[in-house]
Amino acid sequence: MSKTISLEEDAERAVLVYINEDESEDLVVEEELEGLCEAANVVPVASIRQRLDRPYKTFYVGSGKVEEIAALVAESGANVVILDDELSGIQIRNLEDSTKVKVVDRTQLILDIFARRATTREGMLQVELAQLTYLKPKLMARYTKFERQKGGIGMRGPGETKLETDRRVVEDRIVKLGGDIEDVKRQRSQQRASRRKHPFPFASIVGYTSAGKSTLMNRLAATDVLVDAMPFATLDPTTRKLDLVDGYALFLTDTVGFIRNLPTNLVAAFQSTLEEATFSDFILHVIDLSNPSWEVQVDAVLETLKKLGAEDKPVINVFNKVDRLEDRDFVNRIVAEWPNAVAISAMTGEGMDDLMRLMVKQVRELLGAVKVLLPYSHQDWLQECYDFGRVLKVEYREDGIYVEAELIDEMRGKLESYAV
């Protein structure tokens, strides 16, 4: 099955090759690949589908399908073919020989988007490492192709000048990047330790790409985090202090969006960014309930959290974009069926009070009650109780300041010797 799509000006023109075995996933596969193309400034001009139990060794797709792809390329005037899976260097080379245009796989497309989005040193280091890790096994198969491909989709970003280098130089660069990223991880660890000196609970916002995480972050913390409907608008985590109701507070971090079949080398390269979720006390899982494939997206997020070792963290399931849904019975049923769930619209503010109550409930579960008698020489600790917990009672007694409060572990440990 193939189709031709109307052409826009001034963009790379692509034939999209959808590859999936399960017919029920057709919609999510199509929407996702088209969304990735938009983020990479690529216009799909035609598409074709291949159902495979397993890929063919030579071309990935069958030889008959290769002929169809080549015909679509000629008919549509496409200058790139994009396949929705990761290919070997041999498969890419053979497809390029048959179609006479550049061939880009799913991983390379996502890497291109990451290269566009990376703005910080950490982000650029991680993108380059992921690019070179991807390219290394393909260098020998595609070396002559690299000689004549000078830019465009799949050839963008910090790693692009490395394409003509040999395997040894690439390996040396990968080692160097790994060391640089370890330095960044140490710096991030020090930042987390510094925040831990201010003993608030930590929460991370996670979710499928374009689920509305940054919009929610802006709504909750009154920040100006970049909001973009395209995939992977946020690469670098943003942390803000969030004051809740009734005197509670926490640190909230917005993270990079997850995606179906997130390439393994991307998970590895962006470990220092993705692992923010593993250091959180609990997670806000933002779910775009208006997306027909939301359940597939949820599965992808949960699988990524499992890879990161964060699958056992307490979770608040935040069903977002309910302003786009007319069937409120459906919304109410989903919220009732899911644990610790809330329906919101980060765009309009609907449901934010309910979300705030769930967050307070989660924070309270992290706090422990203390009763202490502080010496007057440590009156500053009373202020810390106000700043970093919830003070319930204060009495100024002859022998000290009696305090009843709810505090997290770090603060309770600090005051342990004054417990009464």
Short description:
This protein has 420 residues and is α/β, with parallel strands linked by helices.
Describe this protein's structure:
The chain has 15 helices and 14 strands. With 420 residues, it is an alpha/beta fold. The chain has 4 domains: 2-111, GTPase HflX, N-terminal domain (Rossmann fold); 119-182, no CATH class; 198-365, Rossmann fold (3-Layer(aba) Sandwich), CATH 3.40.50; 367-418, 2-Layer Sandwich (Alpha-Beta Plaits). The strands form 3 sheets. The protein has a 6-stranded mixed β-sheet with strand order 7-8-6-9-10-11, with helices on both faces. It has a 5-stranded mixed β-sheet with strand order 1-3-2-4-5, with helices on both faces. Mean pLDDT is 83; it is low at 4-8 and 225-229.
* Shape verdict: elongated
Helix-strand pattern, N to C?
EEHEHEHEHHHHEHEEHHEHEHEHEHEEH
**N- to C-terminal separation?**
75 Å
Q: What is the name of the CATH class of the largest domain?
A: Alpha Beta
Largest sheet: 6 strands, mixed
Q: Could you tell me the mean pLDDT? A: 83
Query: What structural class is derived from the secondary structure elements?
Result: alpha/beta
C-alpha Rg, in Å? 25 Å
**Beta-strand residue fraction:** 15-25%
What is the H level of CATH, i.e. the homologous superfamily of the largest domain? P-loop containing nucleotide triphosphate hydrolases
Low-confidence stretches: 4-8, 225-229
Please list the strands of the largest sheet in the order they lie side by side: 7-8-6-9-10-11
Helix content: 40-55%
How many alpha or pi helices? 15
**CATH-derived topology of the largest domain:** Rossmann fold
- The tally of domains stands at 4
Number of strands: 14
CATH architect. name of the largest domain? 3-Layer(aba) Sandwich
